[in-house]
Amino acid sequence: MAVALVAAVAGCQRFSRGPNYAEPLPATPTTPVNSGNLSPLDPNAALGTDPNNPGAQPADLASNPVSAPADAKEVGRTDLLGGWNLSSAGDNCKAFMTLTTWSGGYRANTRGCANPVLTGIAAWDLSGNQVVLKDGTGLIVAQLYSSAAGQFNGQTSTGAPISLYR
């Protein structure tokens, strides 16, 4: 039995350095991690900032809604499901809408957005023929209306135009 064990160990590639043996990689040098105190974050600091106008104050879209264009079409919940292209203030990214209920409406998220207003989108809802996009706290981020076939246009809380299209 001892001979069989020695033969098995001798035949193992790990110990024999056979043709398929790979040498271990050398350790990679790393830079040291700095430590220090961070200032507290303001959760609303990024919201409402327009990169083209940093001093702009966010619009209160809840009390001052964007007026509907005359040609705004009726919209149903299922019309908004799935993936969308999202464009606002020079930022082009993706938005995804589901019918999973969530605080203030239904779940939504974005991918590939650089604009903090767009990255904060967490929910969507319908108010008549208006599509309302909200952040994680339930604040209205944008209001849109159906314009052309399969496209929604409106305004963000910073006053920037926003479009949702396929």
Helix content: 10-25%
- Gyration radius over CA: 27 Å
Beta-strand level of the residues, as a percent range? 25-35%
List SSEs in N-to-C order. Answer: HHEEEHEEEEE
Helix run count: 3
Major β-sheet strand ordering? 1-2-3-4-5-6-7-8
CATH topology of the domain at 82-165: Lipocalin
Strand segment count: 8
Low-pLDDT stretches are 44-57
Silhouette: elongated
Q: What is the assembly state of the chains in this entry? A: single chain
What do the pLDDT scores average to?
Answer: 78
Summary tags:
166 residues, mainly beta, eight-stranded antiparallel barrel
Helix and strand layout, with pairings?
Blueprint (H helix, E strand, L loop, with lengths): L1 H10 L1 H4 L65 E7 L2 E12 L2 E7 L4 H4 L1 E7 L2 E6 L4 E7 L4 E6 L4 E5 L1
Antiparallel strand pairs: 1-2, 1-8, 2-3, 3-4, 4-5, 5-6, 6-7, 7-8
Organism: Roseibium sediminicola
Subcellular location: Cell outer membrane
Pfam family, one: Inh
In short:
With 166 residues, this protein is mainly beta.
Could you walk me through the main structural features you see in this protein, from its secondary elements to its overall organization?
- The protein is mainly beta and about 170 residues long.
- It has a domain at about 80-165: Lipocalin, CATH 2.40.128.10.
- About 10% of the residues lie in helices and about 35% in strands.
- The chain has 3 helices and 8 strands.
- The protein has an 8-stranded antiparallel barrel.
- A hairpin with a 2-residue loop joins strand 2 and strand 3.
- The chain is elongated, with a radius of gyration of 27 Å.
- It starts with a helix and ends with a strand.
- The model is unreliable at about 45-55 (pLDDT under 50).
- It is found in: Cell outer membrane.
- It is a lipid-anchor.
- This is Protease inhibitor Inh/omp19 family protein.
- GO terms for molecular function: peptidase inhibitor activity.
